[in-house]
Each structure stands twice: as structure tokens, then as C-alpha cells.
Specification:
By secondary structure, the chain is mainly alpha-helical. 83% of the residues lie in helices and 0% in strands.
Length: 453
């Protein structure tokens, strides 16, 4: 556990964010290696099938992930306030919610997978493999929820290093299994899905064992979990906007895929590959935002709001430098990155254009995410949700659709940075109002009273 309420803000946030970033790099790495193996040994249709499956998976799990964010924020604030009994209650309640939701998601996803892909007008040559991959993946979603729940608990307590260890091990296992299942056993796209489930299952089991053996103030007792209605309602109050935000983002991804699908298999494959690279490039902003949320939660819980501003400014500076560096790397090596996944010249060219357009504006995405991280850490999750709705559904989807009619595929890509620009501007303007400070679940003490106390 790490106390983020004392010490130099930039150093604390960087030290806390780095293991999370490395962990997610490994997590994305095995997704990327999956795609590389699938693209080179099965074909571009399988590559497009995996790419088309993930927006659907994201829709099915996004709401629950958002609710879990609410629990993480509550844990960090209770930890900052040293209310350890409430931390255990929050852990129990979150795990019950996640495990119950996983059963529901599996059933719904399995029954509706083919129907969803038909609505999205997925090319017929991709549809069978996409349906198979999705159904197998959802069969193991319980371990995905379980591991991410444990990781969220550890991060809320200030421990971001341990999840990194489990992710590294999980990544290595996944890479080995995908290679064996696809290349030697010839299980095709099903092999990639099965390998992911086994790797995530191992990470979940070992993380639970570790938590129970090393943390004195909390433990996960799968058969002795107790549901706390009051804490659940607090989690819903904070996490519901994040859950809805995640859901609308996921639906936006599906809507964008719907536009992409109309241009055929090559564009679907190119978008799938470029999206993988894109997700990898965005990891610094996303992980530093998560670290900042925990930092903000602990410091507001400890009655130290003055540290929040310093933390925000130093985080924004660090991530801006990183985003500019990543932009240059993606632009310079866009062709080489695409060529790792496929040898199809047309797919490479289409993906390269996407990367050049979108990566040029990573700094806007960074600003938007880091600013939202402050609001979430304070428990003010409603405004980020509304800003997401506006930038995605009012700007990105309509603009991409309209530009695609006049400028073809490249018009779709331009809708992405335009939406980021709107989100970044309005997020920063709301941050400057300071209204998010009033959303903490730990009542803030006035400075004069705090000094007397």
C-alpha cells in the first residue's frame, strides 16, 4: 500500500502510474501478439473478426467496469481517511456485484452475438469467425471481471506494482498458448480466445491468493462475501455515470464500426489493426489518469485539496511530453507497424493513413483524459459522462458519417480528433470552475477549522 497524501506530487504519481502503465502495456502486448499471429497464420478475415468482436465485448462489460470504478474511488477515499472497516465492506460488495454481472453478461452475449453482428452489417466472410471468437471469449468473462476487480482493489489501496507482476505472467502464458493453439494445434481463431481465458483465469486465482496472504486489513472470501447496501448505493452513485460513460463509449465504437463495415473487409482489417496500435499509444494517458484519480481520492479523503492542483499540473506536463513523443514514433513508423500484422498491401496502406491522421492529435486525447481523472478521483463522474456523450455522439459519430460520404474512409478517421478537441476544451473549462471538489464522499473540513483541529 502506498500513501499518496505526503511527498512530492509528481514523483508519487509517476511512481504509482508506472507499474500500471507497464501492466497495461503487457496486457495490450498479448492482444497485439494475438492479432499478429492470427493475421499472419489465419488471414485478414480472422484479423477483422477479432477487431469486430472487441467493440461488442466492450459494450457488454463497459457498464460493470464503470461501476467498479466507483468502488475503487470509494476505497481510495476510505484509505485516505483510514476507515479500514469500510474498505472491507466495499471490497465484498464490489466482488459480489462483479461475479453476479459476469453470469448475466455471458448469457446475454452468447444468445445475442450473431444478432449484434448482423445489425452492424459485418461482412459475411468475417461473421462466422467473429461469432465463434465472441462466444468463447464471453464464456470466460467471469475471470476477466474477477481479476480486474482485484487489481482495482489493490490500486485503490495504492498498490499498483503487484497487478503488474500478475499481468506479466499472464501475458507470457497467453503468448505461449496462442502460439501453440493456433500454429501447432490448428485451432484457428478459437485457439486465440481459449488462450486468453486460461491466461486471465490464472491471473485471477493468483491475485486473490496474494491479496489474502499479504494484506492485513482486507481479504477476499469468495464464500463469505457480505453485501452492504449502503456502500453499494454509494458505489452506484459514483460509478453509475462512469458506467454509462463507458457504455456510451462502447456503443460509439460499435457505431463507428458500423460505418467502417460498409467499406468492406480490407477497411475492417485495417481499422482493427490500426485500432490495436492506437490503443497501445493511448496507454500513458489512460494509466496516468487512473493514477491521478487515486491520488485525488486519497488527498481529498485526507483533507488536502491543495495537493490536487499540483498533482494535476505535473501529470498533464508529464503525459503531454509522452504523447508528443508517441505521436512522432507512430507517424515515422506507421508502415512498419502495420506490416507486422499483415502482408496485404491495401490493408497496410489504409491503416497507415488512419495512424497518421489520428496520432497527430494524441495530445488532445491526453488533455481530455487527465482532466477527467481529477473529476473521477473527487467522485464527480457525472460531468465526464456528459462530456463523453457530447464529444462522441454529437460530434464524432455524426462528423465521421458525414465526412465518409464526401471523403471516403479518411473522413471517418478525421471525426476522431475533432471529437477529442471538443472533449478536451470542455473538460478543462469545467476543471477550472472547481465544482468537482464538492463531490467527495468524505466531508471536507474548512481550512480554518482543520488548522484548529
Amino acid at each position: 500500500m502506498i500513501d499518496l497524501t505526503n511527498g512530492k506530487e509528481s514523483k508519487l504519481i509517476f511512481t504509482f502510474a508506472l507499474p500500471m502503465l507497464l501492466g497495461n502495456v503487457f496486457q495490450q502486448l498479448y492482444n497485439i501478439i494475438d492479432s499478429i499471429i492470427v493475421g499472419n497464420y489465419i488471414g485478414k478475415e480472422a484479423l477483422g473478426a477479432i477487431g469486430a468482436s472487441f467493440p461488442v465485448i466492450f459494450v457488454l462489460i463497459s457498464f460493470i467496469i464503470g461501476l467498479a470504478m466507483g468502488s475503487t474511488i470509494i476505497i481510495s477515499q476510505y484509505f485516505g481517511a483510514r476507515q479500514y472497516e469500510n474498505i472491507q465492506k466495499t471490497v465484498d460488495t464490489m466482488m459480489i456485484t462483479l461475479l453476479g454481472a459476469s453470469v448475466l453478461v455471458t448469457i446475454v452475449g452468447f444468445l445475442l452475438s450473431g444478432f449484434i453482428f448482423n445489425i452492424l452489417k459485418l461482412p459475411k466472410e468475417i461473421l462466422p469467425q467473429a461469432t465463434l471468437f465472441l462466444q468463447i471469449y464471453l464464456g470466460g468473462i467471469v475471470v476477466f471481471f474477477g481479476y480486474n476487480g482485484v487489481a482495482a482493489i489493490l490500486r485503490g489501496l495504492g498498490d499498483s506494482k503487484t497487478p503488474l507482476v500478475f499481468l506479466i505472467i499472464s501475458t507470457i502464458v497467453n503468448i505461449i498458448l496462442v502460439y501453440v493453439f493456433v500454429i501447432f494445434f490448428h485451432w484457428g481463431i478459437a485457439g486465440a480466445a481459449i488462450a486468453t481465458i486460461i491466461a486471465q483465469g490464472g491471473a485471477f486465482i493468483t491475485s486473490v491468493i496474494y491479496l489474502n496472504r499479504t494484506h492485513e486489513i482486507i481479504e477476499i472470501r469468495l464464500f463469505k462475501l457480505q453485501f452492504d447496501r449502503e456502500i453499494f448505493m454509494k458505489s452506484v452513485k459514483i460509478g453509475l455515470p462512469s458506467g454509462l460513460q463507458q457504455t456510451f463509449v462502447a456503443l460509439g465504437m460499435m457505431a463507428l464500426f458500423r460505418i467502417v463495415n460498409e467499406f468492406g473487409t480490407d477497411v475492417v482489417a485495417a481499422y482493427s489493426v490500426a485500432g490495436r496500435i492506437d490503443s497501445f499509444a493511448m496507454l500513458p494517458a489512460m494509466n496516468f489518469s487512473a493514477a491521478l484519480s487515486t491520488f485525488v481520492g486519497q488527498n481529498l479523503g485526507a483533507q488536502k485539496p491543495e495537493r490536487v492542483k499540483k498533482g494535476f499540473e505535473s501529470t498533464l506536463l508529464m503525459t503531454s511530453i509522452v504523447s508528443i513523443t508517441v505521436t512522432l514514433a507512430v507517424i515515422l513508423f506507421s508502415h512498419q507497424f502495420m506490416a507486422m500484422f499483415t502482408k496485404d498491401v491495401n490493408v497496410i496502406e489504409l491503416g497507415q493513413k488512419y495512424l497518421i491522421i489520428v496520432s497527430s492529435f494524441y495530445i488532445l486525447f491526453t488533455t481530455m483524459f487527465i482532466t477527467a481523472g481529477v473529476m473521477r478521483g473527487a467522485g464527480d463522474t457525472l460531468i465526464p459522462m456528459l462530456l463523453t456523450l457530447v464529444s462522441l455522439w454529437v460530434i464524432r459519430i455524426p462528423v465521421s458519417w458525414m465526412l465518409s460520404k464526401n471523403y471516403g474512409v479518411e473522413g471517418i478517421w478525421w471525426g476522431i480528433p475533432i471529437a477529442w478537441a471538443v472533449g478536451a476544451v470542455f473538460s478543462y473549462l469545467y476543471y477550472k470552475t472547481g465544482r468537482w471538489k464538492k463531490k467527495s464522499i468524505i466531508k471536507q473540513v474548512e481550512p480554518e477549522i482543520q488548522e484548529v483541529i
